[in-house]
Specification:
This protein has helices at 9-14, 17-25, 92-97, 109-128, 147-159, 178-182, 190-195, 225-229, 232-242, 262-266, 284-293; strands spanning 135-139, 165-170, 205-207, 213-216, 248-253, 272-278, 300-305. With 324 residues, it is of the alpha/beta class. It has a domain at 92-100 and 107-312: Rossmann fold (3-Layer(aba) Sandwich). Strands 3-4-2-5-1-6-7 form a seven-stranded mixed β-sheet, sandwiched between helices. Helix 4 (109-128) packs across helix 5. The longest helix is centred in the middle third of the chain and has 20 residues, at 109-128. The protein is elongated. It starts with 8 loop residues before the first helix and ends in a 19-residue tail after the last strand.
């Protein structure tokens, strides 16, 4: 009988199946192989971080200073044209003899009346804010109705206003009388500036010894006066005289509207017209015709001259003569 080897039960219970197979079939060292000790050190490649978009920089707070502002282009103010003619001295004796306002004398009823007239003109000029409204034409339908008298008194009354310049322009080339009434002499004037474009008109405007009052003579007349007044040169001259001077007024003493054409020509270059009518002399038909000729002016006012009767009984200048 063949002899079989004995198997120790206690040993079999403690060994695993692999260990018993190794013992039976000679499979020594069965199991995971050992890692050699002389292997080169492993190179550890660092992981590439995921590329993410950089966070946007926080927006700077918008302040009142940093806030964008709309660019506004402001037009440069016009340079003021200085009136630089030779200084003239007004003859006070001539003013008094002609019944005109004398600035240094006490307040009279005549001055009070022209204060009312100038207030109307000033109010309308300031309301319109237009340079043309500061050009006032003084005219009458016929000769002898007092247009030069009223133009001169109005200019003197306006010159008494603070911060106002008044240029009294003698535009009656046919019968110039402004300089004669003021007692001054001037050769070149308005018509010379219109005829010769090389002449700067401000050099023909003379300051006077009455504060704020300037005078421009009529100048040399010709057979083409009406055509000169109707030309573009007239607008250029008048614009230059008022350029950069918002408180400068031009008062024009013109020929009678029904006697000559200059008044009608100048009416297109002014913003206000004062039509002088004489009480008990100027007819309604003449008044209507004169207004029609001056229709190029947008604002025509009527001034009643030489009125002897007031329906209200009002009379300026006698307040100080009565007892309250």
């Amino acid at each position: 009988m063949t002899e079989h080897s004995k198997i120790n039960k206690d040993t079999a219970a403690r060994t695993s199946l692999f260990e018993r197979a190794d013992a039976a079939f000679g499979l020594h060292g069965l199991g995971p192989s050992r890692v050699p000790r002389d292997l080169p050190a492993a190179r550890i490649r660092p992981a590439t971080p995921e590329k993410r978009p950089a966070p946007a920089a926080p927006a700077a707070p918008v302040t009142a200073e940093a806030a964008p502002q709309a660019s506004t282009v402001q037009a440069a103010p016009e340079q003021r044209v200085k009136l630089c003619g030779p200084l003239m001295e007004i003859d006070r004796f001539n003013l008094k003899e002609a019944g005109l306002i004398v600035p240094e004398e006490p307040v009279t009823g005549l001055l009070e009346e022209f204060r009312i007239v100038k207030r109307e003109l000033l109010a309308d000029a300031r309301a319109s804010k237009n340079a043309a409204a500061r050009r006032v034409l003084v005219c009458s339908p016929h000769p002898g109705e007092g247009k030069t008298y009223c133009a001169t008194n109005l200019a003197i009354a306006l010159a008494a206003e603070r911060d106002i310049e008044v240029v009294l322009v003698d535009a009656d080339v046919i019968n110039p009388s402004v300089t004669r009434r003021l007692g001054i002499e001037a050769e070149a004037g308005l018509m010379d500036a219109l005829a010769d474009e090389s002449i700067r008109p401000e050099t023909l405007v003379s300051p006077t010894d009455i504060d704020g009052l300037f005078v421009m003579a009529a100048g040399s007349g010709s057979a083409h006066d009406a055509e000169l007044l109707a030309s573009q040169r007239t607008g250029q001259v008048l614009d230059r005289l008022t350029r950069g001077a918002p408180n400068r007024f031009l008062i024009f003493d013109t020929p009678p509207a029904l006697a000559a054409s200059p008044a009608a020509e100048l009416a297109a270059h002014v913003g206000q017209a004062l039509l002088v009518v004489r009480a008990d002399e100027t007819s309604r038909a003449a008044l209507d015709d004169a207004r029609q000729l001056l229709s190029a002016c947008p604002d025509i006012k009527l001034l009643l001259n030489a009125a002897q009767f007031s329906p209200s009984g009002r009379r300026f200048g006698d307040y100080g003569e009565r007892e309250d």
